[in-house]
Amino acid sequence: MKGETKMKSKMKWVGLIGIVLSAFSIFIHFLLARFTQLGVSDYQSSVTIFSWRPIFDQPDFSTNGGSYRRLWGQVKLFESLYPDSVPRGDYPEPGSQTNGFIFVRIQGGFHEIRNSICDVVVIARLLNATLAMPEIQSTTSSKGISSQFKSFAYLYNEDQFTVSLAKDVKIVRTLPKYLKGARRKKEIPVFKVPYSASPFYYLHHVLPILKKHSVVELVVSNGGCLQAILPPDFEEYQRLRCRVSFQALQFRQEVQELSAKILQRLRAPSRPFIAFDPGMTRESLAYHGCAELFQDVHNELIQHKRSWMIKRGIVKGKLLVNSAEARLNGSCPLMPEEIGILLRAYGYTKDAIIYVSGGEVFGGQRTLIPLHAMFENVVDRTSLSTPWEMIRIYGQEVNLVNPPPSPPPFEEVKKRAAWKNAGPRPRPLPPPPAKPKSYNIEGWWGWVAESDNEPDSTVMELRTNAHKLLWEAIDYVVCVEADVFIPGFDRDGKGHSNFASLVMGHRLYQSAASKTFRPDRKEAAKFVDEIRDHMYQANRTWLRSVRRHLRKTLLDGIIEASSKSKPLSFLSHPIPECSCLRHDSSEVSKNSSSPLSSQVWKTLGVSHKCPAWMDTTSPVSQSKDKENEDDGDDDDSVSGLFFKQSGGNNEGEGGEVNTKDENQFEDQEELEGGER
Q1: How far apart are CA 588 and CA 306, in angstroms?
Q2: Residue 454: strand, helix, or coil
Q3: Is residue 675 scored above 90 in pLDDT?
Q4: DSSP letter for each residue of 397-439
Q5: Under 8 Å CB-to-CB from 611, ≥6 apart: which residues?
Q6: Any idea what DSSP says for residue 89?
Q7: Which of 34, 81, 454, 647 is buried most, with the most CB atoms less than 10 Å from its CB?
Q8: Distances 324 to 294, 330, 361 between C-alpha atoms, Å
């Protein structure tokens, strides 16, 4: 009996201890979830298995030979083009006395905000005004976003912005208190500045009011409040634009850290990668009349947006547009499938890494299915980061998830009483009360089938608009640093330069020799239509034409951008104002095999010589480059997609079939096209 009693007592103690430990464990987990969310996120990000699993047909990746240089190498002609945005003439620093304060409210998306900030800094310098930190309305109009980051600081580093421009413009964090009060009372003059206004507009209209009231407020809503091409006397202001965009506008630390992590994960396999920006937004498709490229509800959404634009005078054309003709004229974006065909035709193998940028790809993942079918390593921001890492850049946010309102309670007693007093049978019951309508905006856009009016943005949508700025900031960093960049479209929903144009301009400024394809959409549409019905039996003439076209755009695309993109956005083509030629550029031009090398600098207008300290090229490196050019014809890369006998990626037994003929085709194609 005593033994049984002791055993029961021990069991009770064991059970009690287990209960206490369980309660303590639950309590600790509650504390971790409640008070150390960021710490847990760090831990989670370190152990999370990412969704991307690289697939490579060949584990060894060779960086030697003509194939690598043709696909991934730099454009040799532009290796002598360096960034140079420092002032070149008499450029005094801002004085302690200014004409007053300029407060700016900026509306729009990522590329519009970036263009506008550069413009308002130039305007502040032009008017000798003190610039208050610009307000980004995409963040101030959002509800529930983190209070850690406000307005400008939600996207950019305020300290870096202020310090970098200390010798250009006087910048303050906020307006003085007395001016804040006057602004709340709407006592300060407000200018809704026109798009692409001339400097004389500000000198003749804004400056007198600024001197009179010591403060003005500018509302910028179209992605640019100063004309892109300024008179020759204003060339220093163009270089100021470059200093703002490429030096002062640095993203805040959390965004830079996550961007660096994503770049590190992209380069972890020790292979170069391609960045692709589709540029397919609902607004841009509606503006250019590309609705018929889509089906079902997406077509209706584009047409609804185009109708809305026509009513507000944004679009001058008709509602119904022949999208097939618009596509053949180059007015519509290149679809992901078409970009994939061009890349495979150029020689990129199916295991090439492709990073798809953009906060929104209209049509969803369905439009990317053909690209995934042609390339095995198609990734984006979501597949290279964890939800915990994204939460960290958002900061602490208020929970805005509100369940839909429940229907009013049904009173069973009243129903029975009404049924008893209803009179002779049968008598139909009254219809049930109407359920409150709730549209799933992020899903299938149910309002399209029931209403002609688009519902107002929900609270969650406003927050998502702020998040999209951070998503595009990450994509911007990745695209600028990519080994190869190719855009699907270079216009936005107002006919102006878009995200891809800013990326191409930044790459041209920072590393002009990096490979940036600028395909002619009109020519690309013809190439795709020629091969669509017999894609797996493409002839060598077609392949040679596609490769010659893409290689030609590496140079001609930049020359064309100087006349087409630059008038819309200076940042899309910041040369020659923000560039210089290395001292030995004349020798490089003489040694180059391109027939346009003798005219390219004259065409682009680049004549300023770089300072002597930029000339870092040694004779050894020049001789090495010469050797690389000599063996540039040993290109044995043939895209498996377009050769039926090659069995995929030009590898394995199938890839050895007819290898001699393929190598001869590559050698001839390289000799005809030359190395740009």
Answers
A1: 50
A2: coil
A3: no
A4: ------PPPPPPPP-HHHHHHHHHTS-SSP-PPPPPPPPPP--
A5: 84, 580
A6: S
A7: 81
A8: 11, 10, 20
HSE-CB of 564 using CA atoms within 13 angstroms: 12
Of 629, 638, 626, the C-alpha closest to 664 is: 638
What are the pLDDT digits (tens) for 116-139? 999 999 999 999 999 999 998 877
Sequence-separated contacts (24+) of 317-322 with Cβ below 8 Å: 317/289, 321/289, 321/290, 321/291, 321/292, 322/289, 322/292
Closest CA to 485 of 72, 52, 80: 72
Radius of gyration (C-alpha) of the chain in whole angstroms: 30
Q: Please tell me the pTM assigned to this model.
A: 0.82
pLDDT in tens, 143-152: 667 667 778 9
Distances (CA, A) of 487 to 184, 334, 342, 386, 512: 43, 8, 12, 26, 16
Task: Please give the pLDDT value at position 437.
Answer: 53
Helices 540-564 and 521-531 meet at what angle, rounded to 10?
160
> What tokens appear for 652 in the block?
């394995």
With left for phi above 0 and alpha for psi between -120 and 50, is residue 445 left, alpha or beta?
Answer: left
Terminal Cα distance for the chain, rounded: 97
Q: Are strands 101-106 and 135-136 parallel, antiparallel or unpaired?
A: parallel
Residue matched to tokens 């003749």: 204
- Picking from 355, 317, 359, 311, the residue whose alpha carbon sits closest to that of residue 336 is 355
Bridge-based pairing state of the strands 135-136 and 190-192:
unpaired
Both structure tokens of 577 = 């104002």
The tokens for 641 are: 């997609």
Distance CA 172, CA 155 (A): 17
Is 633's pLDDT higher than 80? no
Beta strands at 515-516 and 81-83: parallel, antiparallel or unpaired: unpaired
Residue type at 518 in one-letter notation: R
pLDDT tier at 455, thresholds 50, 70, 90:
confident
Q: Which ranges of 312-347 does DSSP label H, i.e. alpha helix?
A: 323-328, 336-346
Rounded CA-CA distance 343/349 in Å is: 8
Closest CA to 641 of 661, 655, 659: 655
Question: Residue 138: which residues within 8 A CB-CB, separation 6 or more?
Answer: 107, 108, 109, 113, 465, 466, 469
Amino acid at 435: K
Count CB atoms within 10 A of the CB of residue 46: 9
CA-wise closest residue to 382 among 345, 421, 400, 356: 356
Contact present, 152 and 175 (Cβ < 8 Å): no
pLDDT band, residue 40 (cuts 50/70/90)? very low
Residue 259: its pLDDT value, please? Answer: 95
Would you list the DSSP string of 626-647? HHHHHTTT------GGG-GGG-
- The C-alpha torsion from 264 through 267 and 272 to 278, rounded to 10°, is -50
Closest among 528, 503, 547, 542 to 330, alpha carbons compared: 528
Distance set, CA 495 to CA 302, 314, 485, 603 (Å): 16, 9, 22, 26
Strands 81-83 and 130-132: unpaired
Mapped onto helix, strand or coil, the DSSP state of residue 494 is: coil
Question: Measuring CA to CA, which residue among 548, 543, 539 is closest to residue 672?
Answer: 548
Q: Answer for the pair 282, 291: CB distance below 8 angstroms, yes or no.
A: no
DSSP state of 51: S
In percent, the amount of the chain with pLDDT more than 70 equals 74
